[in-house]
Write a structure and sequence with these properties.
Layout lengths: L21 E5 L8 E2 L4 E5 L2 E8 L2 E8 L5 E14 L5 E4 L9 E4 L14 H7 L11 E4 L1 E5 L5 E6 L6 E9 L2 E15 L4 E12 L4 H15 L10 E4 L1 H4 L5 H10 L7 E4 L21 H10 L3 E6 L3 E2 L4 H5 L16 E3 L4 E5 L5 H16 L4 E4 L18 H16 L4 E4 L4 H4 L5 E3 L27 H10 L9 E3 L14 H14 L3 E3 L8 H23 L4 E2 L10 E4 L2 E5 L8 E5 L1
Parallel strand pairs: 15-16, 15-25, 16-17, 17-21, 21-22, 22-23, 23-24
Antiparallel strand pairs: 1-2, 1-6, 3-4, 4-5, 5-14, 6-13, 7-8, 7-10, 9-12, 10-11, 11-14, 12-13, 18-20, 19-20, 26-27, 27-28, 28-29
Helix pairs in contact: 7-8, 10-11, 11-12
The structure holds 4-nitrophenyl alpha-D-galactopyranoside (9PG).
Length: about 600
């Protein structure tokens, strides 16, 4: 039975409570119909009560359990008619984590990647808050969206935070109307009798079509300010081992590059995946690294660089020291088998996930981060951090996926200390705000623009795969996040013109794009392959990067001018310059114009 109370419908400054809106809850055994709500107030949905309040330009909300038994909540949602559809309706799709497909999508034409034939459960779990397959015709955006109905003003809608739960916007055409669902995603978190869970506010703003980048930047500014975003770290130039040596990296590779780096302007020197004896065991090395981690850090520091190291803190291989000594720390899947956090042949196939709701696991993460900093690594690249968001049996079933990720990150921050520089990667974006200093905002670059033979390898999710074209797409589309939520990390520069399938034009175009983001500028080449021209290109794009970064501190972040027009955008404006690029299927070229 529906009950309505509270004030009558009132216009909220900037955006009234959506007329005709309905409230919905989902969860196991929660088989209750949607309930209309005329304005701020409380509605009852079976054992659950949802209370909506006003806030300028949006609403506040909470969910409570009025019953005598615990309930599990998958999602609480507001469903509304978002107006008439005009020609070519579309939305800005923000992917769930660093690598997830991001960019404008067209209603009635594009499909949610989960709907691809043979899309894998792991892909769906990695790349969305909700791993269920989307409804036909439904497009999703996580945390924030801009909806262009095809006529009239555009609507920017976002969650004010992603710290305690995820937020998903679901949009579809309903005849000649646009239907919008704003969903607080709790992932089956248990709500005990008599308890209430506050949900993150929803904030909305209308604007002209051409205002989309400014609306996104304003949303990010608000979320960052409200979430204590770490936005004051230094502009950073560095070197990283991954995109030259991949998992086969040796200590010799690191040392030979360090020896050649005297003329290079690197602040940070970062060892990536490949040093560890096993995924999960981060404090020692495999036999390709005869020295210990502390010795390598000391030698990097002696060369005048900040030592950096990669880890996937929430994952553990079944044969790792951590998993074999603490089998109870590994998350089980509902089937009773180990939850699979990733499948990677370099890691001995399947790796599991640590239970970040277990206080012993959190103590272990804190101690691991503290030990790495103590060994001399104040720069930590935290990868595959979506792990604890996957659905499984966790020790504390009251925690949402976002809270599970965040608890792990908080433990790492406690251990690493406030001075450490943490880079998020494979990270659900909302969970990282206030904890990471920099965030990978796109998929991996690669020594190719697009690798045709990869198409269809990961059905539905080709855009998340390593390819410079994929990094390009997301890094331009998410440029507005820079120095609002963290420092953007668009992924590495690849400057070499041998041992690569990137054309010289593509090498230069990507380097300029990285510069125009104002974000981290990390080179990932064997320095023996590079010459004076390559160093001049790095100097050119880091000078540009510093100028863009400085402008983003005192003014707006870089503006992706065609973010709502092009699925693969090519325009980025900042600090009196504009990147004008022609990103194509097989190659890219770009020039810089003064504006
Ligand atoms: C190390 C690498 C590098 C790189 C990271 C990350 O979807 N995938 O299976 C997938 C695997 C690896 C990957 C991204 C996605 O790369 O982004 O910079 O650190 O791990 O293994």
């Amino acid at each position: 039975m529906a009950r309505q109370q509270g004030p009558q419908r009132e216009a909220i400054a900037g955006a009234p409570w959506p007329e005709g809106a309905r409230v919905r809850v989902r969860g196991p055994g929660l088989d209750v119909a949607e309930v209309p709500l005329e304005g701020p107030g409380t509605v009852v949905l079976g054992p659950v009560e949802v209370t909506i309040g006003e806030r300028p330009g949006g609403w506040t909300w909470s969910v409570a359990n009025r019953g005598d038994e615990a309930v599990r909540i998958d999602a609480v949602a507001v469903v509304e008619d978002a107006g008439a559809a005009g020609p070519e309706p579309r939305l800005f799709r923000n992917g769930y984590q660093s690598w997830s497909p991001t960019g404008v999508v067209r209603l009635g034409i594009d499909e949610d990647p989960s709907r691809a034939e043979r899309s894998s459960p792991l892909s769906r779990q990695m790349h969305h808050a909700d791993h269920e397959i989307a409804e036909p015709g439904e497009l999703r955006s996580e945390l924030v969206t801009v909806l262009d109905r095809g006529e009239g003003p555009v609507l920017c809608a976002g969650f004010a935070s992603g710290a305690s739960h995820d937020g998903t916007f679901r949009v579809r055409l309903d005849g000649d109307r646009v239907a919008l669902t704003t969903e607080a995603f709790l992932g089956g978190a248990r709500l005990d009798p008599g308890t209430r869970r506050p949900l993150h506010d929803v904030v909305r703003a209308d604007g002209e079509r051409t205002d989309a980048p400014e609306l996104l930047a304003a949303w990010a500014g608000g979320v960052g300010a409200g979430g204590g975003a770490r936005t004051k770290g230094p502009y950073t130039v560095g070197w990283c081992s991954w995109y030259q040596y991949f998992s086969g990296v040796t200590e010799d590779d690191v040392r030979s590059n360090l020896a050649r780096s005297a003329d290079w302007p690197f602040d940070v020197f970062q060892v990536d995946d490949g040093f560890e004896p096993s995924i999960g065991d981060w404090l020692s090395c495999n036999d390709r690294f005869p020295s210990d981690l502390a010795t390598i850090a000391a030698d990097i520091a002696r060369a005048g660089r900040v030592p950096g190291i990669w880890l996937a803190p929430f994952l553990a291989a079944p044969t790792s020291e951590v998993a074999t000594s603490h089998p109870g720390w590994m998350v089980q899947h509902a089937s009773g088998r180990s939850l699979v956090g990733n499948t990677n042949p370099d890691w001995g196939a399947h790796v599991g996930v640590l239970d970040t709701t277990d206080p012993d696991v959190l103590a272990h993460l804190e101690a691991t981060a503290a030990a790495l900093v103590e060994m001399g690594y104040p720069y930590l690249k935290l990868d595959f951090t979506y792990g604890p968001s996957l659905p499984g049996r966790f020790a504390d079933p009251t925690r949402t996926p976002a809270e599970r990720v965040r608890a792990g990150l908080e433990a790492i921050r406690r251990g690493a200390g406030q001075e450490a520089f943490l880079v998020g990667c494979g990270m659900p974006l909302g969970a990282g705000v206030g904890l990471v200093d920099a965030m990978r905002i796109g998929p991996d670059v690669a020594p190719w623009w697009r690798r045709g033979e990869d198409d269809g390898l990961v059905p539905g999710y080709d855009q998340s795969q390593p390819a410079t074209r994929n990094a390009w797409r997301s890094s331009l589309a998410r440029s507005f996040m820079h120095r609002r939520l963290w420092l953007n990390d668009p992924d590495c520069l690849l400057l070499r013109t041998t041992q690569t399938r990137l054309s010289p034009a593509a090498v230069e175009a990507w380097a300029r794009a990285v510069g125009m983001t104002g974000g981290l500028a990390v080179v990932s080449d064997d320095l023996a392959l590079l010459g004076d021209d390559d160093r001049r290109l790095l100097e050119e794009v880091t000078a540009l990067g510093r100028a863009v970064d400085r402008a983003s501190l005192s003014g707006p972040p870089p503006r992706c001018d065609d973010v709502m027009a092009e699925a693969l955008p090519g325009r980025l404006s900042a600090a009196g310059a504009q990147l004008v690029a022609a990103p194509g299927t097989d190659d890219v070229s770009a020039r810089l114009d003064r504006t």
